[in-house]
Every structure is written in C-alpha cells, then in structure tokens.
Amino acid sequence: MAFQRVLVLGLGKVGSLVATLLKESDFEVTGVDAAPRPELPFKTLGLDLRDGAAFARLLGEFDAVVSCLPFHLNIPLAHAAHAAGLHYFDLTEDVPTTHAILDLAKTSKGLMAPQCGLAPGFIGIVGAHLAQEFEALRSIELKVGALPKHPRGSLGYAFNWSPEGVINEYINDCEVIRMGHRQLVPALEGMEIITINGVQLEAATTSGGLGTMCETFEGRVQELHYKTMRYLGHFERMKFLLEELHLRDDRELVGRILKNALPAVDEDYVFIHAAVEGWKQGVLARSEFVRAYPQMEVAGRSWRAISWTTAASLCAVIEMVRAGTLPQQGFLKQEDIPFQAFLQTKNGSLYLKGEQR
Fold first, then answer.
1. Structural domains present in the chain
2. pTM: predicted TM-score of the whole model, two decimal places
3. Rounded distance, CA 68 to CA 72, Å?
4. Tens digit of pLDDT for each residue in 65-91?
C-alpha cells in the first residue's frame, strides 16, 4: 500500500523532529498537538485526542499515523488507525502495549509497526544483523544508554527522555532468554561494567528494550538480554529510591521527583553496545557494534543525541515501508528490518554521519 500523507501525533522534542524529517523526506506531513504550532515547518493542528469522533474523522485524510505520545495513549490510537485501515507506527517500549498492537495486526489492512525508536528499535535491528553472521548462537547482548555529556550529582542523569518511559523501564519485569528459554527477571539486576571510548559505564536489566526478540530467538540462542547503561553508581541509588523508599509503588510521584531534580540538558550522548557470540565454521567467535553518538545538527538546528537517534530510526522505517522494502500489512518486528537497507535510507544514514570518531 503506497502512501504519502502522514499524521504525526505529539510534537514534543522527538515528535517535532520526526515530522520535520518526514517532510524533508518528501512526505506530506501534518502534526497534531494540544494546540497548533505555527512556528514549525509543516502544517499543524490543535486537537484533543480524547475526542474520539473528531480524531476518527481526521484519519480519513491520511495514509499513516505516527504516535510520538506517551506509551499509555498508544492503544486507543492504534485501534483507531486499525479501524481506518492505515499504517501505524510508534516508539513504545511498553510490553502490554506491544501485545495489544500485535493482536490488532492479525486483522489489519495496513502495517502495524510499534517499537520503532532506539530501544526497542535500532538496537534490535543491529543485534539481528550481527546474529546473521553465525551458524549457531550462544548469546546476544544488547545495551543502550542515553546520558548527559557532563554528568552531575550522584545519579549522573538528565531526563532528556520521557520520565514515564524511564520509570516504566526501571520497575517492570524484563523478558530475557536464559538457557534457551524465555524468562522474566527483575529490572535493575545483572549489573556489569562497560567501557566505550574510554568512558566507564554500568549496565543493568530494564524492561522493554528487546521488543519481540525473545519470541524470535527462543530456541536459537542460549542467552539474550537487554540492559540500559548509566554512569557508575546510578543504579544503586535508583534501587534505594524504588525499593528501600518504596517509591516503585507511586510511579507518578517518583517521576515528579526525578524530573524536578534532573532537568533536560542540551549536550548528551547515546551509547550503543551490541555483542553476539556463536560459532562460525565451527570456531567460537564474537562480533560487536559499539558506538557513541553525540548531539548533531539535523534539519538546520542542533538536536540532542536521544532525539535524533530516536527520530531517525522511526523515519527510516517509514521510508522503507513507502519504498516497499518492508511489508505493507500485518505486524513488523524490528529484528526483521535489514540493517544495510536501513542505513541506505535518508534518515538511517544519519547513524553513519553522526558517529563520534
């Protein structure tokens, strides 16, 4: 189903860049926020998304819906896109949301493609690409960290991403593969130390970063996990807040506390560490993809690393669907997206231009 007209919902830091990149990729873009945003370089509308009838009427003008809204809003939006027969894309890391969209995809006329961001998203594309090199797999280890360039305080963090999403990842159980079988393990466990470009980071399990990879690789790999990377000491302090102070029982409160203490900063890094071990021609081997991406000038202005890496991944997938490189119907798993074709898109190529060397 060829398409051109795209509706982007949510015009925050990532959503406004998604819409801008799609416009520069020759899509017809309309952005929706609580109020019109005339300063943005594409058409915008103000709409209360709680008005389901108005939203349904609006969908008739478009070929695809892209949600850049908080994860808890995505299920009703996906239902509306499904009912209208449109392609649907989002950035969710929330597992129940993904399962709901997977069910919708069984009867969809368009493509249902959640998890099109960084993790899940780009990291799964990279991990599956590395795994293709091996005759038999032993482990797939995937890690991402979005961090301030100049950390301060004992947490060494800044909320350049959704506080709701971060707290969700820190509290919910994490799906992994251990000894060849899918399991659930607690978040903030399995601590290890990683060094990227001379910077020491710690990594621990967090929820949602694998997307559908456990389903895909069960029975094919002995160990598969996703971990978030932070500056040293972060997870010990987060476990104190969430467990000893029982703030895990009040996600809204802990989100307000942390957002107030750790406001967004302009200079940041996105660290990527993917490693796969297995056998090639009978010999045990290891392949790695390790990168540090800083903030970068995109579309005429400087964007945080977390913003452009997330937006570029989503927009590259949308480009590939338009070009017919990806399926036009059903459910899209990120690990089924060919990595080299991804990098050859206009937006996927930003991952080549933006790499710190």
1. 5-117+308-353 (3.40.50.720), 122-304 (3.30.360.10)
2. 0.95
3. 11
4. 999 998 888 999 999 999 999 999 999
